Amino acid sequence: MSKSARKPNKPVKTRPGRTGLSRPRLIDEALELLQESGLAGLSTRRLAERLKVQSPALYWHVRGKDELLQLVADAICAQMVLPAKARSPRERLEAIAHEYRRVLTAYRDAPRLFAEQPPVGPNRIKLYDAAVGALLDEGFPAADAIAMATFYRHYLLGMIIEEVRDQQPGHIEAPFSAFALGVELTRLGKAASEFPNLAGAADLLTHMSPKKLFAMGLKVLLDGLQAHLNP
Amino acid sequence: MSKSARKPNKPVKTRPGRTGLSRPRLIDEALELLQESGLAGLSTRRLAERLKVQSPALYWHVRGKDELLQLVADAICAQMVLPAKARSPRERLEAIAHEYRRVLTAYRDAPRLFAEQPPVGPNRIKLYDAAVGALLDEGFPAADAIAMATFYRHYLLGMIIEEVRDQQPGHIEAPFSAFALGVELTRLGKAASEFPNLAGAADLLTHMSPKKLFAMGLKVLLDGLQAHLNP
DNA sequence: ACCTGAACACCGTTCAAGT
DNA sequence: ACCTGAACACCGTTCAAGT
Q1: Contact residues for B48 (Cβ-Cβ < 8 A; gap 6+)
Q2: Which chain A residues are within 8 Å of B122, Cβ to Cβ?
Q3: What distances in angstroms separate CA B100 from CA A35, A173, B36, B188, B214, one per listed residue?
Q4: Which bases of strand D sit closer than 7 A to a protein CB?
């Protein structure tokens, strides 16, 4: 994947002034840059530098940075293995969810990338289509299936964003991680008595694994869908 | 709120070199700038210009841009009216959700701001505490209540983000709006047959109001929570 | 067709210096 | 204590010009 089409030892000089730039190479290198430097480090200029090209060169292959990011997101999405249609709808929805989580946690800042960029591109649409398909097979009327697929997506994305945020070293400000919540509560100082329900929260959060949390949330969502189906 | 502490006609010259800058004034003006120019337009330099101050001056009152954004988010959060504890837990959760939606849709780019910045600050924590409180009263064990509150938050945020994205004029790329999905499907061209389940989706999405969608998603979530409580 | 050079209009932040 | 001036190290993008 990331080790594709690199220049061989003897550079294939197609023509003078030609650098062998291409959309796939852009995407490939952008993915590596994302892994190394995160979303903030993925700038057009740094990407150009990596490709040994002046940054305006990118704009011949890509409309702008947003399109580049959408292409990167779609490339990440391409790695998800969608479940076979033979399996039950609920199993499919679960499988999609876990694939989503698996792939998005594998790439640095991928959850944020997916949340920021609109779901554009064949692979992201394909994923959406798969979710809608499962919901249709579950028995939802078409309009509901589409709505539910949207909920489903946001739910997953939100949970994965939070899970990943906690993993970032130094990024302990998010008070939904055990440690950070404690920090924030003490930072807010004596007013902490205003938050009676969060008193023991910090401790409790320590004992929950992200994977279990994710599975728990998924179950809540799927049960909610089921309830909507059989009122 | 936004019309507070502005300089009167006769500027109160406290001391030479003193500009009357303060944290509340920063937050106030930042909120207005956000309304006018959106999240991308809310830069430290533009904010300084509005306050008739050199941009480094801000750094005496605020640690950096992130802290500023967190303060802004917390100020927005302060406008939410939390439900009385007398009401039933489910009613409270519904009320919180609708307040969340009401306030976040009132401020430009507020949903994105809330998603990007970690939930730090007294008002955001208070909101979190209120949700956890309702869930505890509903009968959840403490650990579950905290987990559920996290799901709840992400769910709401995700749905509101998508709803607002569609409202932005020109920002029609998100294929979860009726129009944009149609655009994207045709953009992907002949491969559209790969997405059998999305065929009529564009039309269906047209007939769903954001408010109804939001309420529907909320019901799904709350039903899911209920199912978790009574298995 | 594909890329460079130069430029434009921005960013967030630091830090010595002023008052 | 509170702010300015100057500077640093960046951004994304446009556009004429080159090959």
Answers
A1: B54, B55, B57, B58
A2: 188, 191, 194
A3: 34, 22, 21, 36, 11
A4: 1-6, 10-16, 18-19
Model pTM score: 0.88
Written as one string, the DSSP assignment of A187-208 is: HTGGGGGG-GGGTTHHHHHHT-
Size of interface A-B (CB pairs under 8 A): 196
In this complex, the answer to whether residue A19 has its CB under 7 A from any atom of chain C, a nucleic strand, is: yes
Nearest-angstrom CA–CA distance, A38 and A36: 6
CB-to-strand D under 7 Å, chain A 23-82 = 41-46, 55-56, 59, 64-66
Q: Closest nucleotide (CA of B43 to C1')?
A: C11
- Which of the nucleotides lies closest to B15 (Cα–C1')? C19
pLDDT in tens, chain B (231 residues): 333 333 333 334 445 557 789 999 999 999 999 999 999 999 999 999 999 999 999 999 999 999 999 999 999 999 999 999 999 999 999 999 999 999 999 999 999 999 889 889 999 999 999 999 999 999 999 888 988 898 898 888 888 887 776 565 555 445 666 667 777 888 887 666 788 898 777 677 777 777 888 899 999 999 999 999 887
Per-residue CB contacts under 7 A with strand C, chain B residues 52-81: 55-56, 59, 64-66
Report chain B's terminal Cα–Cα distance, integer Å: 46
Distance CA A106, CA B160 (A): 27
Structural domains of chain B sorted by starting position, each given as residue range(s) with its CATH number in brackets: 1-79 (1.10.10.60), 83-166 (1.10.357.10)
**Which of B23, B82, B217 has the alpha carbon at shortest distance from A154?**
B217
